[in-house]
Amino acid sequence: MTEQSISKVIVLIRRIRTEFLVCIHRLLTTVAGRIFLSFLLLYLSLIQVCRYAFYRDPTSTFFDPSRAYEHIYSLQRQQEANAFIQAFNDSSSNNDNKAPSSEITTCLGMTTVERSGEQYIRSAFGSLLEGLAEDERRRLYTIVLIAHTEPERHPVYHEPWLRELVDNILTYDKLNTEQLDLLKEWEQEKDYRRKAIFDYTYLLETCIDSGAAWIAMVEDDTLAVKGWYPRTMAALDVADSKSIDWLYLRLFFTEEFFGWNSEFWPTYLLASVSIVTAVGLSLWTLRIFVLHRSVSNWTILTACFVYTPACIVLYFMAGRTSMLPMAAGVHEMPNFGCCAQGFVFSSTAAARVVSKLKEIERGFVDMIIEEWANNEHLTRFAVVPSLLQHIGGHSSKGDDFAPNQPLSVAETIFNFGFELYKQRGDRVVHPAGDG
User: Fold this and answer.
1) Long-range contacts made by residues 51-55, C-beta under 8 angstroms, separation at least 24?
2) Residue 29, Cα to own-chain centre: how many angstroms?
3) Which of 21, 281, 285, 353 is 20 to 30 A (C-alpha) from 331?
4) How far apart are CA 334 and CA 331, in angstroms?
5) Taking the mean position of all CA atoms in its chain, how far away is CA 50?
6) What 3-state DSSP class applies to 423?
7) Which residue(s) pair with 141 in the sheet?
8) How far apart are the first and last CA of the chain?
9) 407 against 80, higher pLDDT
10) Which residues have CB under 8 Å from 17's CB, separation 6+?
11) Rg (CA), the chain
């Protein structure tokens, strides 16, 4: 580089420094500048607040997976459930299957298969029974399907608690030879899409035969909040009051799919434009009737096209479930619910589900039910906050990991709000309310 070139660079640097200092001076000495600096400091502070407040919101830019999937209430509930199961494991009882009594109102069905590693069914089933009052337990008829053609393969099959606590241990022993051969073939070929449909239908039909008015189908890798049963019964009453003909009450959902979904972008755009317009009109009105010349054109322009858009962007970054949380209660949830961890059907609706699954024969239960419900415009409800948590880290259909993610897909099926439950005396409460 020549001496002349070096001189030009030095002159340019000095000019840039001078302009920068002039800008800083204007920012510090003019009203508009001080407003901008104040807004910038406030905005940066709000970003830090958002990082702290919204890290558990999967719809937020500030979502932090390394902290968000922390099990808080789940750990406590799992300990309670395991202790409950262990108490009955010390029993030497060998009870036979019990016939449904006239007192039952709900059939609780759960399908379980052997998993590699932890058998979640122990804590799953324990959490459903631990804490029930005596009259609540009498109204609940429990069925567990050991979904193996050789049920002895399942590690819990010979554990004492199973026969002590489960009213009906369902196996394939009553199926005919043709059905049994077909199940063995699906097991060998790992055809989960056919076998899962058969198992769900088989268990659902058995629950229907119990004569219960309500049928709760819960997966074996979930945890139920203490007091789930009376909350569910109350929610069913609300659902009945809202609709005569509805398909199911969802006990679990994941917030991951409740973000600012792209199909609603016209609504978001219209709302944003309306806010900017309202700010502009408000400042213009103030200038004309109140403040007169105190509000300049520049002030109105920066408020409409800098400050307000920046606040709108931060609002969307914070996440939909944080900015527009669902109130506690029973809500229609026709979209984005995911997955089949826990449904409650009326006996009539359950019979319709059985008919539909027998038509399809192959697929994923939740996807078949949702597609059918969408096509038939069937009403679906969900309890908020969720009454179940998904704790399975290993899918019974094989593990799959998302690209560049430390967690398996199964581990990301998670309800973040569930972890906010807290024990208060003899009750479990939630910041959103009791639902």
Assistant:
1) 53/318, 53/322, 54/318, 54/319, 54/322
2) 51
3) 353
4) 9
5) 21
6) strand
7) 107
8) 74
9) 80
10) none
11) 29
The two three-digit tokens of residue 395, written as one number: 């899918």
Mean of pLDDT values over 321-343: 92
pLDDT on residue 122? 96
Q: Rounded distance, CA 42 to CA 65, Å?
A: 26
Is-contact 72 419, C-beta < 8 A? yes
What DSSP state is assigned to residue 60? S
Specify the length of the chain in residues.
Answer: 435
Backbone torsions φ then ψ of 281, nearest 5 degrees: -65, -35
d(CA 349, CA 353): 6
Does position 13 have pLDDT exceeding 80, yes or no? no
User: With a threshold of 0.90, does the pTM exceed it?
Assistant: no
Joined tokens for residue 210: 């119990």
Tokens 């009737």, residue located: 289
Residue 288: partners with Cβ closer than 8 Å, 6 or more residues away = none
Per-residue tokens: 406: 């430390």
Listed residue (30, 54, 28) closest to 41, CA to CA: 28
Distance CA(417)–CA(385), nearest Å, equals 7
For residue 65, CA distances in Å to 31, 74, 207, 304, 314 come to 42, 17, 39, 35, 20
Helix/strand/coil for 404? coil
Q: How far apart are CA 112 and CA 187, in angstroms?
A: 14
